[in-house]
Amino acid sequence: MIRVEHVSKTYRVQKRSAGFAAALTSLFSREYEEIRALNDVSFTIGDGEMIGYMGPNGAGKSSTIKILSGILTPDSGSVTIDGRVPWKNRIEHVKSIGVVFGQRSQLWWDIPVIDSYELLRDIYAIPKAQYSKNLEELTELLALSELLKTPTRQLSLGQRMRCEIAASLLHAPKVLFLDEPTIGLDAVSKIAVREFVTRQNREHGTTVILTTHDMQDISALAKRVILIGRGRILLDGTIDDIRREGANPGGETTDLDQAVANLYRRLDIL
Amino acid sequence: MKKYCSFFRVRFALGLQYRTAALAGMVTQFFWGGMNILMYRAFYEADAAAFPMTLQATSSYIWLQQAFLMLFAAWLLENEIFDDIVSGNVAYELCRPVNIYDMWFARSAANRLSRAVLRSFPILAVASLLPAPYGMAAPASAAHFLLFLLTAVLGFGVTVAFFMLVYALTFYTVSPNGLRILISSVVEFFAGAIIPLPFFPDGVRRVFEMLPFASMQNVPLRVYSASMTAQEMARAIGLQAFWLAALVAAGRMLCSHALTKMTVQGG
Amino acid sequence: MKTIQKLADAVRLYFHYVSLNVRSAMQYKASLLLMITGQLLVSFSTFFGIHFMFMRFSHVKGYTYEEVLLCFAIVLMQFSLAEMFARGFDTFSGTVRRGEFDRILVRPRSTVLQVLGSRFEITRIGRMAQACLMFAYVVSASPVAWTPLRVTTLAMMLLGGAMLFGALFQVYASLCFFTLDGLEFMNVLTDGGREYGKYPLDIYGKRVMQFSIAVVPYAVVQYYPLQLLLGRSANPWLAFCPLGVLPFAAICQLCWRYGVSRYKSAGS
Shortest Cα distance from C268 to chain A (angstroms)? Predict the structure, then answer.
């Protein structure tokens, strides 16, 4: 159970100004600009749900993910995940979550994938028996057997993403965060990733929180969609709600990407 | 010529942006200079008779060295040039109607100069306020100062030209990192950046002074405080001019050979 | 008992990290060999700097050539050990810039352990080899009797010095949480500590000594135990002087914690 209540987060960004004199004074007194990344955000996610978390760039998606995964401390509001506050009991909390950052690898570049996995086994202190069982299952479902002995640098993007996802699931987390997992992937890999995530959710009851710009990901994976813009939750509903709210001015329905574009424009959050 | 001037201008302006780095650099170099002088003081106290120049001249040498560190530093190489060569992006540069050698020369000169400009004056100003013999002394005479400027320009040219050779050599090596580290430390040593050349034993020093490395910072820093005779200065300036011409010629040749080789092999 | 078990587990995990680092480096054998050779040759320029100074001067503040070389060998070894094991802190600006610290925070292990594990710099054995060469020369050339006390002193110096430089790298890394600009001044304390530590600290005068006791305790891993090693003092307690690094390292650890908490509240 993930409970987020009235969470706000403001960043202070240093103002930069030109000129040597300005640079000198900035060493002693700095001017800051405040950016509200999250503004009174609340939602609840039940065990085993699959959520699509969407919004334009800079809407507050990654701030939310960072807060939920214990990387960032909010200014105000409360978050509990299975009764734990992510940023207070970091070590206990992160044992039960898995995070895939689509744009950053967690695998060691020059050595075979399996070696990275064995390090993860030791990092998460996964018991041997459980580790081999999980690895076996992931290997089968993601078709990794050929890849495990290959150094990461020799993998294609799609192969690497499959390996990344498996790496995040070796310790059988209850919650899985997927941050743009299909970015740059070819059609086959995209479908493979979607099928796997659906199955993982169904068979292990893993709660999945997915951020993406790919509407097909959302419609394939998420029954529930949370839309965030300018730091506020603007819509918490289903794909159909998006379709309806984003319908063309004439009222006729349109494809999902167009609906989202209409919606963003209408809500003025771009 | 005009286009190389604009390469120079762009890089120069870019270099001026690193103001915080310049401030931190000034503090750093001030401490390095200070520690160096304290070290020479200890040797001076141990045996003043064995000291090859006056303590005051040594202090001036060290402060000038710190102030103009960026002009002569052997570790200040352009990573972008290395990256371009290693990744093969240099092929794109070949499509431009410019001479690669001249472009890179203008670029590295601008980079070094822009960094030195920000740092040199504050360091010299503070150093000249320090009490003798630890501070920065005035030049021995107006003539010495003018000669200092001339030899500094020549030495700067030799430094840039030498590292152009290093860039060109990168075309032929698998590990530019190893090459870079090695060359940097060799140059620093022979150029008198670790200890000034007068501190070397005479036989060794005479050989070192013939090498191109001695034509970098060694000459201007010693001319400033008149620790060279008129005859020595004339010889040193002649050597500087010779090395500048030789290094530029060699660099151009190596560069065009490397580029032809690359074009033939298709990158 | 449980703490010991936890510690043993952490050490085992650390060496797992080390083995992956070494295996990664072994993928590029030619480049690795060149880097190690480069590291070996680089520090020779400092050695020649000392060597040629002593061709002109017979001593400095009463220290002979062999005594200075011993001092330099020890400091070089301290620094290289720190660079080898704490390279993760030394290159931390890149870790923050690339956002890799986020990954560290979502793993159930101490941040320090993970940062140290992320980089193990095998190429520094090149520098260590040079330190060993000088050390071997000094041992053969000077009549210092290597009593158990002196050997202990040497071991303590290496351990304490590596820890001191490691702690300085940690302070640098902690500053990366606040700014990535202008951290160059930390070089004065790290590279500077190595470069100027080649001579016993008292040659630089009173002020530098005071700084090396009160601000960054270089003196407890260099000057004081060196007096015992060179037979200038008979006080056996000087052998344990390098333990004086511990409080400094503790303060650096606090800086790190403060940096992490700031990272967590400010974002990257």
Answer: 9
